[in-house]
Amino acid sequence: MKNKIAGLSLLLLFVAIGFVASMALGIVHIDFSTVVRSFIAFDGSREQLIIRTVRLPRALVAVAVGCCLALAGGIMQALSRNPLAGPEILGINYGAALAAVVASFLFGYTTLGLFAWSSFVGAGLAGAAVFLLGSLGRERLSSMKLVLAGATINLLLASLTQGILILNQQTLDTMRFWLAGSLTGRDVGLFMQVVPYMLIGLFLTLVMSKSINLLSLGDEAAQGLGQRIGWIKACLIGLIMLLAGSAVAIAGPIGFIGLAVPHIARFLAGADYRWILPYSAVLGALLLLLADIGARFVLPGQEIPVGVVTAFFGAPFLIYLAQRKGKTL
User: Which ranges does the record mark as transmembrane (predicted)?
Assistant: First the structure.
């Protein structure tokens, strides 16, 4: 217990260091004293304006999005009992992307607010469609049916999204950066609109951590311990929609955080989801902060979307997991 608390405290310290580094590092280098003065003695200088209006919102979004995606991934892996599962398996990313593309195509203009709310609605509808499809038939909703329904909806939504983008070049040009997953240009106002949903999802996830623990043992074992399997699964799918949907709404579809982070948390905290989930939340925030800092230095003089960085490091991790899983079959 003490070791886990100490480990979590150390990770929180790393998040704090990464948060400060995110405000100081970039194309315009800003020293630590200027970062501190921008909050205690703001003078309106160029560097302090960059910190207050650009880098602070960006760091806040990175922490919140990383936390939500990692928690959604942890829930998804417990729900499906599949180590390769992530929020993408419920069609959350492509549901959000399709809704944002359709909104941009229909209304003819693009704003972060339009992307955020349309994608949030799209993520919710996609998750609901997967749940309904997986519930069809005489048998109750199982992990296998959930995965198959998610894969089916995911392919459908991806095809529709690509089809609309091909038909409309203007929509493709305006949405290309958002679809890659980016933290650039997010302001505090937009963040404050979405953050209540994130906090509700975080709180409910921690409250349900005991039920998630039991469900990870398997449907039969959880039912034998008196758990209402159908109700718990419905609640967990709702939490995944809330967490991943709000994250995608504000930052676009960022991949691999939800897949990789729960495995790292499981390695550090053991098999108890009452510890895996808090560790995942903190690790997700830390890794997305680091990925966003790295995105500023990959190409000289310009930044790349953070989703490209997470995909670059996440792909080898996915290959490793797939090989490891194959050896255990």
Answer: 59-79, 91-109, 115-134, 146-168, 188-207, 250-269, 276-298, 304-322
pLDDT digits (tens, 9 = 90+) for 41-86: 777 778 888 888 888 888 999 999 999 999 998 998 888 777 777 7
Residue 48 structural domain? 2-328
% of residues, the chain, pLDDT over 90:
15
Task: List 302's β-bridge partners, or say none.
Answer: 299
- Cβ burial of 153 (10 Å; 0-12, 13-18, 19+) is buried
* Residues paired with 299 in a beta bridge: 302
CB 74 within 8 A of CB 262: yes
CA distance 157 to 229: 28
Element (H, E) at 67: helix 56-80
List the alpha helices (DSSP H) in 208-305.
209-215, 219-224, 229-251, 257-269, 273-295
- Which two three-digit tokens encode residue 231? 């109700």
Report the distance separating Cα 221 and Cα 270, nearest Å: 20
| This model's pTM is above 0.85 | yes
Which of 19-33, 92-106, 223-237: highest mean pLDDT? 19-33
**Residue 34, C-beta contacts closer than 8 angstroms, at least 6 positions apart:** 24, 45, 47, 48, 51
- CATH, residue 271: 1.10.3470.10
As for how many domains the chain has, the answer is 1
